[in-house]
Design brief:
It contains 9 helices and 7 strands; from the N terminus they run ααααααααβββββββα. By secondary structure, it is an alpha+beta fold.
Length: about 325
């Protein structure tokens, strides 16, 4: 098999391995063992051996269950931060076993990197689901099932139509590279939220947060009436960023840091149609509906850690409610 076709096969397999390593190995093994695909790269024929299929199948079943339970899936992803990229690298090295050792090594390094990107995207997406969405398992199960189907389909395509699968994989890889920085911020937020949940049971924060001096500049050097640290969602330019939700007079601000400097999202109290506070497993979410001039109604969400639940409640109560003016 020529090197280009081999590379086109390995690239999408590395991508799927970053999402579900065991499903990827299982699909490749079944394709080899049952003859679903002919002309499989010789190095991958070992995947069709009985021991490999059994072990991959058992591990896939364990992941199938763990992947659909909130928080358990986060722990599972954390454990597999090394396992998935390493597995993808081994898979690539195995596929290129009959090629020059230098090429095999380069392929393994690339495969590990691609797998790490897709793993980060998967883990970050789960962090968003478990941190910001309601305490129900429907969304988690739906996303997990979609991942399983996607991994199976792309892994099969990688063996059957490698160039088509590689084109799809490259598009997905570019999208992931664009999204991963924001998703990684949510992963960090989730870890801090778990600690804050524990801390909130012992020593909840009841005094308003103090804005850094650099953030007060955005409020024209005036102290806010109430401020609480949180993470933004659905806020243009601030999605996934941590900052301070601050109420000052008739204005609500969200101040945050970017590589270009400090920024602030602002909405006037009179333009807020309604504000809701939702209790989640790891956070409280303040959901705000507001009117935008000449545009349809806007919606912004801010996740506040559990040790600051009292502050989140105070801030939501200070904003217009559905029954209010």
């Amino acid at each position: 098999m020529d090197t280009l076709r081999l590379l086109a096969t390995v690239l999408p397999l590395s991508l799927t391995a970053g999402v579900n390593l065991y499903a990827t190995i299982l699909i490749v093994g079944l394709c080899v063992r049952l003859g679903w695909v002919v002309n499989v790269p010789p190095g991958l024929e070992v995947m069709g051996s009985t021991p490999v299929i059994i072990v991959a199948g058992v591990l896939y079943l364990i992941e199938f269950a763990a992947d659909k339970i909130p928080l358990v899936d986060n722990v599972w992803d954390a454990v597999h931060t090394v396992i998935r990229p390493l597995g993808a690298a081994i898979l690539a090295a195995t596929a290129f076993a009959d090629v020059h050792p230098v090429v095999a090594l380069l392929a393994a390094l690339i495969a590990g990197g691609v797998s790490l990107v897709s793993h980060s995207g998967k883990a970050g997406t789960r962090a968003v689901l478990n941190t910001a969405l309601p305490v129900e398992n429907v969304s988690n199960i739906a996303v997990s099932l979609a991942e399983d189907v996607g991994v199976g389909a792309l892994a099969f395509l990688a063996l059957k139509f490698p160039y088509v699968a590689s084109a799809i994989g490259l598009v997905l890889l570019v999208l992931l590279i664009l999204l991963v920085p924001q998703l990684l911020r949510w992963m960090g937020f989730t870890l801090r939220a778990i600690l804050a949940r524990i801390r909130g049971l012992v020593a909840p924060v009841e005094r308003p947060d103090t804005l850094p001096t650099t953030h007060l500049v955005l409020l024209e050097h005036r102290l806010p009436d109430l401020a609480v640290r949180g993470q933004a969602r659905r806020v243009p330019g601030a999605g996934g960023r941590g900052g301070y939700l601050a109420l000052r007079g008739d204005s609500l601000f969200f101040t945050y840091n970017t590589w270009r400097g400090k920024r602030a999202w602002k909405v006037e109290r009179k333009d807020i149609a309604a504000a809701y506070r939702h209790r989640r497993m790891l956070t409280d979410v303040i959901e705000i509906y507001y009117r935008r001039a000449g545009k349809r109604e806007g919606r912004a969400e801010f996740a506040v850690m559990k040790d600051r639940s009292a502050l989140a409640e105070q801030l939501a109560a200070a904003l217009p409610s559905p029954a209010g003016p």
